[in-house]
Task: inverse folding
């Protein structure tokens, strides 16, 4: 056996050396040793000649050290750890229950999308591994890491609101782990970009509605309310936006590209058209060319109150 950082091991208390602590090893005979400092005893003092369980890690001086504190994560396993701190050159430091923090390197996150990086207090699913020097390091958990722990979501979840965490972010949506409650660890899910009301970041906790329970037991989710409720909320938001615009008009209509609609309103084009249709049916707005106007304030010309060339992203 080897004295390896990140592992829990049964070790023999060989001797006590003041003012340092206890030296531990495999059995009472010769062989590799590791120091258990007095400050890491965390309770009753170990007795020389007895066997204890200790967790091994590297201290601030890169020395392999033992502690009797119980870690939240060991080498090769996965756990959900809270973000305690961030360093712009190194990455995120995670609480792991031993008074020391575990580094999650910055290189695991997209440099060009800082808006999806975790924030302090977020919870990340990570696996502990080693760097080239054998020191503890974290990496974000992947789909294969979740496989032994998850369960198939029941069909009774359909249309229910569930709590979960974002585990990874893609261009068109986010992967999630949905809280399982009494059923267990959780179920895998996905939230498409069009089903969000705002961007989500890795490690963020959310509440979402289950819109589909797939045959493989995974779920599709939406942070948006059911279609009818969502249509009312979307219509109110669009109407408020138009009212705040100069002249009561906006350079968006059902002819606007889906990309521009998503960027401005965080809505899919179909949701935008449903909400706009509701406002038009109620006689609150009207469309003229590529513009939508409050009906009572509709101008005589397409170019009023703004130019057709106005950038719809503003």
Result:
């Amino acid at each position: 056996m080897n004295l390896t950082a990140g592992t829990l091991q049964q070790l023999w208390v060989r001797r006590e050396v003041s003012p340092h602590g206890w030296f531990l090893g495999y059995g009472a005979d010769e062989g590799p040793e590791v120091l258990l400092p007095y400050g890491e005893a965390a309770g009753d003092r170990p007795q020389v000649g007895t066997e204890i369980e200790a967790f091994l890690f590297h201290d601030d001086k890169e020395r392999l050290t033992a502690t009797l504190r119980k870690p939240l994560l060991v080498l090769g396993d996965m756990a959900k750890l809270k973000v305690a701190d961030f360093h712009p050159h190194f990455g995120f430091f995670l609480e792991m229950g031993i008074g020391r923090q575990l580094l999650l390197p910055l290189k695991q996150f997209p440099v060009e999308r800082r808006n999806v990086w975790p924030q302090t207090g977020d919870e990340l699913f990570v696996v502990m591994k080693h760097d080239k020097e054998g020191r503890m390091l974290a990496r974000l958990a992947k789909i294969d890491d979740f496989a032994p722990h998850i369960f198939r979501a029941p069909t009774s979840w359909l249309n229910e609101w569930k709590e979960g965490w974002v585990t990874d972010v893609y261009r068109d949506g986010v992967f999630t782990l949905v809280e399982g409650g009494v059923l267990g660890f959780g179920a895998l899910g996905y939230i498409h970009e069009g089903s969000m009301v705002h961007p989500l970041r890795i490690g963020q906790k959310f509440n979402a509605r289950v819109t589909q329970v797939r045959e493989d037991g995974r779920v599709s989710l939406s942070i948006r309310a059911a279609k009818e409720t969502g249509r009312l909320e979307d219509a109110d938001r669009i109407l408020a936006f138009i009212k705040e615009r100069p002249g009561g008009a906006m350079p968006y209509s059902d002819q606007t590209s889906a990309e521009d609609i998503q960027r401005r309103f965080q809505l899919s084009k179909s949701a935008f058209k449903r909400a706009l249709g509701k406002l038009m049916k109620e006689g609150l707005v009207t469309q003229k060319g590529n513009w939508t106007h409050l009906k009572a304030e509709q101008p005589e010309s397409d170019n009023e109150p703004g130019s057709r060339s106005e950038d719809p992203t503003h």
Q: What stands out?
A: The chain has four helices and 18 strands. The mean pLDDT is 88. The two ends are 63 Å apart (CA to CA). The chain has four domains: 8-67, 78-141, 150-222, 228-297.
